[in-house]
Amino acid sequence: xxxxxxxxxxxxxxxxxxxxVDSLAQKQPLRKLHTWITGETKPTLKxxxxxxxxxxxxxxxxxxxxxxxxxxxxxxxxTIGNEHIENPSPDLLDTLYICQQRQxxxxxxxxxxxxxxxxxxxxxSLKNNVIEVAQSISxxxxxxxxxxxxxxxxxxxxxxxxxxxxxxxxxxxxxxxxGSNTHRPLNPQEFRGFALSDQLAPLVFINGKDTxxxxxFTLAHELAHIWLGExxxxxxxPVSSVSNEVELWCNExxxxxxxxxxxxxxxxxxxxxxxxxxxLLAKYFKVSTLVILRRLYDAGKLTHDELWIAYEAxxxxxxxxxxxxxxxxxxxxxxxxxxxxxxAIVCSTLEGQTLHRDAFRxxxxxxxxxxxxxxxxxxxxx
Length: 382
Prior knowledge:
Elements: H1 7-16, H2 21-24, H3 33-38, H4 45-54, E1 79-80, E2 83-84, H5 90-112, H6 130-141, H7 145-149, H8 154-167, E3 171-175, E4 177-178, E5 181-185, E6 193-196, E7 203-207, H9 212-228, E8 232-234, H10 245-258, H11 261-267, H12 274-285, H13 289-298, H14 304-319, H15 329-337, H16 339-350, H17 356-363, H18 368-377
Parallel strand pairs: 3-7
Antiparallel strand pairs: 1-2, 4-5, 6-7, 6-8
Helix pairs in contact: 6-10, 8-9, 9-10, 12-13, 13-14, 15-16, 15-18
């Protein structure tokens, strides 16, 4: 049986994953892709299913009369210049959808467990003083700058930061791939993170393809969104030119949370080179050197022109540093889905409240042995 698919849907599916028709036609099952477009032949259902898989396109889309207009399902604050970014990638959309599904599951779980609304969600507004909000977040988390200074590296500091957020009820998910598909890496140039605000199940997602130091800023920025009670998608950095007042406010809160100006003033040397100053302060606060550049500007230590010249040079240096990836599945999975969520869904499944099928789908695992080992690693199964 063959499917009657309009040519513009075939072309659209290629474009949405950033592939040319020629490159996809190199794959054996798609060798007649050009003839599907010209109408000389029609794909079999099996061929069309394969095409849907490699283009990460819902199979039913190919039977629409025209390509659908896809949009991000939450408030999208990403911009290039002052223009909103159009055409989200399938990787971004699928990541958002799975996080929304996890949040919906946890909302029901929290209600079943009798959990009460978290008081900090939506407790701030844009009218609130940035320093006071940063202090509020710091107090709620037990976020101690001096303790962070003593940590060995950025990875340890980020892990501790995430754990603090998890302990007060915020699910923090960090992943550089879609679900558990290592062949679908996320692009930090498209987005750095997002916040799904909710009184019972606030969720923060961080693009794990960013550096650990950059992830620190993203988490701080998205926590500011949670304090505002705002669900939003972000691509900002500490030195981004931001016109949106929400993103500007969240940036200021994040910068003050990570590197308070009064503390920075006490540590700032001023008698060493900017390179040495950046490394010294970044190591102390366990943040990106880009955050330090922003804070030096905020403190009046750099002019606007000096900031941007140094920023461009520093960004180029950071992008040249190779990143490592991979790791133990049972250690990385709780990071991808948050330990809070992983513990909850494993316990619920073992108690018979959640189907194994649903748990596997939301966790991104496919074997019962992997599920049980995850439970043991989380300390909920012995």
